[in-house]
Structure formats: structure tokens, C-alpha cells
Amino acid sequence: MSGVAIRPAREADLERLAAIERAAMGTARGLDVWHREFRAPAFHTWLAEGADGPVGYACVSVAADEGSLNHIAVHPGWRRRGVARALLAHVLGVLAAWGVTEVFLDVRAGNVAARALYRAADFDEVAVRPGYYADPPEDAVICRRRLAASAHG
User: Fold this and answer.
1) Across the 153 residues of the chain, what is the mean pLDDT of every consecutive 10-residue run?
2) Which among 9, 19, 119, 153 has the fewest CB atoms less than 10 Å away?
């Protein structure tokens, strides 16, 4: 994937992150939610930028040696160009460097593309949460990947 750089998001990016979320998912959390998450010490967000600006993001939370991939989104005009794969690889590398040994995520059961991405990144599907998602109602598939922590800190 060429032409995309990944960097930590800044508070000044929050409106652009919400715009990506809205374009990618048809809805977006309010800016108050983005601000609250951004200021929480356990939450971390990375932004993928193309030549014309932000094109995707990934949000994680960390507690002790466990990470959770909370959100990953790519603007529809940038899909199938490796942006999500690059964001995921970047986040997993950072988490391993921080001493995280397990990463969890949940994904809509019907999101075939995302499930394939996570399988390709060595996530195992370990459980199902029936009826977890609303609008439309759908099960969540819980995935886990073990990491070999490379350093602490």
C-alpha cells in the first residue's frame, strides 16, 4: 500500500475521524464521545493519511497486558487498497511493543470482509455474542490474537 502514512491521532483530528466513521458506517458517534475517548489514558487512536488527508483510523484500549481493537474504519473510496491491513499491522506492532500479550475484538457476523482480514492477521474466532449489534440486529463474533510482546513500556 503506497501513499498512506499512519500516525497517532491528535485532538484536532476528531472531526475528520467522525467524518470517516460516518462515511464508512453510515453513522458516527458524537464528538463528545470522541473527545471523552481521546482524553482517556487507556484509549489510543491512529490515523491513516493519504495525499489528500485522512482515509482511515484504528482505536484501541489497553488494560494491563490485554488490548481491545474497538474501532477500525476506512473511507469507502479507499477500501481494498490495504489501508485496514496496514492500520491493523501497525496497531498490533505498537501493542506488542507496549507489552500487550492478547488482543480482542468483535465483528458483525455478516461482515465477511472484516472477518477475512482478521483471520489473515491470525485472529481466532473464539465466541459469539447473540444479538449484540442493533440497527440491524446481528450477532457479534469475538476474535482473539495472542501477541509475543517485544518490550514493555
Assistant:
1) 82 91 84 88 94 92 95 92 94 95 96 95 97 91 88 48
2) 153
CATH top-level class for 5-146? Answer: alpha beta
Q: How far is CA 100 from CA 6, 72, 75, 151, in A?
A: 20, 18, 28, 9
Q: What is the pTM of this model?
A: 0.90
CA distance 42 to 98: 12
- The b/e string for 59-86 (b: 16+ C-beta within 10 A; e otherwise) is bbbbeeeebbbbbbbbbeebeebebbeb
